[in-house]
Every structure is written in structure tokens, then in C-alpha cells.
């Protein structure tokens, strides 16, 4: 019940925010510097009050944007809705802290500041104001109200890739064709003529005959090298075969040992040999000689 009773007060406080800050969507090419305009509307909670202080933290995607500056800030001063404020700007990666204060504040609506960013990538990101707070003062300089607005979502900043354009070359030849109805002695198919731009020098093209001769020379050298390689490989194979054959021949000689000679027996030698002539003569003399007679004498 208590929560339900407090809802109308909450809605009324939200509807009557003392400070409203907005911005439009911005697009730019990668590498360009874009400007984001922040608009402000100040509605003091009481009559006769003005906004004497304002502070917030502007957060952005550091991978897509790079903070450059705030155009209205000059020597720690800024003009907001016609009133001069002393201000300070503190930057860090992805955030810009802004604080401003004045003796005689301002009210109404208009441009708060122009913030410049450099586009780093082709993505879409949102700017956010955090820790937004302000204070109001009466004409006699007595501060009466301090308000905390909280977080405000601003517009989106979208990067896009720059289109690539190819500049025409000054030395590029222009091609012109004769009219189709013009009577000429040339063949009936269209013939294009090349007109060089002023200051351009014609480029000599290699003749077809020279190109063909060079191709034939290269092809002939390739064939000669191939033949030499085949001859060398053939000689190496033949030499290797001969070495293997000679090695095998010596191995076969070592494997086959000579058989031992057979010596004939003595009987066979004597049987097979024929008597010499001297032996035959001696045998004949022995046969002719008379036998020796042994005579024994008795002693008388």
C-alpha cells in the first residue's frame, strides 16, 4: 500500500525533471571527425531560480570513437544559455567528466555544447550521460535545491566505410572510333584508334617474332638439358651393372674350389710303364751268358 501511494509522486518527479539533455543521431565515415550537438532544457523547481552548477560523465565506446574536444570550452570557461560558467574537463579512455559552476545561473532551453569525435571503426554506438546532477540558486545567491538526474541516454553515432573512388589517370589513352557510315578502304569491321593524351609518350610493345624466337630458344635449351640428364643417368646405370657383374664373377670363382689331383698307385705305374732299351739289352746278355758252375776240390 505504501508503494502504491508513492507511485504518483515518483511519476510527477520524473515528469518534472529540472534538466533534460538530448542529442540527435550522427553518421560519419571512418577517419572523419563528427560533431555531436547536446541540447539542454532547464526548468527550475521554483520560480526565480536558475541553474548555478551542472556536472556529468559522458561515456562512449573507445574502440569506435576518439574524443577530440568540446568546442564551447575556452580557457576553462563555457557559455550555457547566455551565462558564463567556470568549467573543467577531465578525460580518460572512454569517458569525459564535465563540471561547470556560475554565480548567476541560467534557465531555458538551447544548445549546451558541441562535442567532437573521430570515427575509428564502422560500427554504431550510443552516447550515455552518467552521474548527471545540478543545483539551483535564487536571485540573492542562496542555494536552495540540489538535484540528481541520474543517467541519460543520448543519440547514436554510426561509422561507415568510406567509398573508394578511382581517380582517372591523366596519361590514360582515349579510344575513338570512326563513324559507321564513313566510307573507307579499310575492312568493314570497326578499327579503333588510340589517341595519346598530351605529354604522354607511347610505350613500345615487344614484337611477336622476337617473343616467338625467345620461346624457341628456351624450349631448345630445355630439350638439350633433358637429353644430357638422360645420357648421364644411362651411363651411371650401365657402369653400375658392370660393377655388379664383375663382383659376381669374383664371388663365383671363390665359391668353386679346384678338385685335388688323383695320384696313381705304384702297381699301376709299374704295370703301365714299358721297359727301357738298356734294360732290354741287359736282360739279353744275362740270357746269353752260361751259368756259373761251382766246383769244389777235394784235398787228397
Any overview of this molecule?
- The protein is α+β, with helices and mostly antiparallel strands.
- The chain has a domain of 147 residues: Sandwich (Immunoglobulin-like), CATH 2.60.40.
- 27% of the residues lie in helices and 37% in strands.
- The chain has four helices and 13 strands.
- A seven-stranded mixed sheet has the order 2-11-10-4-8-7-6, with no helix packed on it. A four-stranded antiparallel sheet has the order 1-3-9-5, with no helix packed on it. The protein has a two-stranded antiparallel sheet with strand order 12-13.
- A hairpin with a 2-residue loop joins strand 7 and strand 8.
- It starts with a helix and ends in a 12-residue tail after the last helix.
- The N terminus is likely disordered.
Amino acid at each position: 500500500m505504501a508503494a502504491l501511494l508513492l507511485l504518483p509522486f515518483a511519476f510527477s518527479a520524473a515528469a518534472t525533471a529540472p534538466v533534460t539533455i538530448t542529442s540527435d543521431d550522427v553518421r560519419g565515415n571512418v577517419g572523419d571527425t563528427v560533431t555531436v550537438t547536446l541540447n539542454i532544457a532547464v526548468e527550475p523547481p521554483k520560480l526565480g531560480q536558475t541553474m548555478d552548477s551542472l556536472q556529468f560523465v559522458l561515456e562512449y565506446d573507445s574502440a569506435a570513437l576518439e574524443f577530440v574536444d568540446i568546442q564551447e570550452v575556452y580557457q576553462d570557461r563555457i557559455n550555457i544559455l547566455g551565462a558564463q560558467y567556470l568549467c573543467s574537463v577531465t578525460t580518460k579512455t572512454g569517458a569525459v567528466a564535465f563540471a561547470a559552476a556560475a554565480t548567476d545561473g541560467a534557465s531555458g532551453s538551447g544548445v549546451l555544447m558541441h562535442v567532437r569525435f573521430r570515427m575509428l571503426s564502422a560500427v554504431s554506438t550510443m552516447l550515455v550521460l552518467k552521474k548527471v546532477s545540478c543545483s539551483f540558486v535564487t536571485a540573492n545567491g542562496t542555494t536552495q535545491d540540489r538535484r540528481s538526474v541520474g543517467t541519460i541516454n543520448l543519440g547514436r553515432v554510426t561509422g561507415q566505410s568510406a567509398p573508394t573512388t578511382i581517380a582517372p589517370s591523366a596519361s590514360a589513352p582515349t579510344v575513338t572510333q570512326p563513324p559507321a557510315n564513313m566510307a573507307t578502304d579499310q575492312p568493314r569491321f570497326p578499327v579503333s584508334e588510340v589517341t595519346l593524351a598530351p605529354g604522354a609518350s607511347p610505350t613500345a610493345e615487344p614484337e611477336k617474332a622476337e617473343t616467338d624466337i625467345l620461346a624457341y630458344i628456351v624450349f631448345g635449351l630445355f630439350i638439350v638439358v633433358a637429353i644430357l640428364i638422360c645420357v648421364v643417368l644411362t651411363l651411371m646405370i650401365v657402369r653400375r651393372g658392370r660393377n655388379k657383374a664383375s663382383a659376381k664373377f669374383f664371388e663365383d670363382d671363390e665359391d668353386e674350389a679346384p678338385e685335388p689331383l688323383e695320384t696313381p698307385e705304384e702297381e699301376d705305374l709299374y704295370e703301365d710303364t714299358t721297359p727301357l732299351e738298356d734294360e732290354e739289352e741287359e736282360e739279353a746278355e744275362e740270357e746269353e751268358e752260361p751259368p756259373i758252375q761251382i766246383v769244389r776240390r777235394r784235398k787228397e
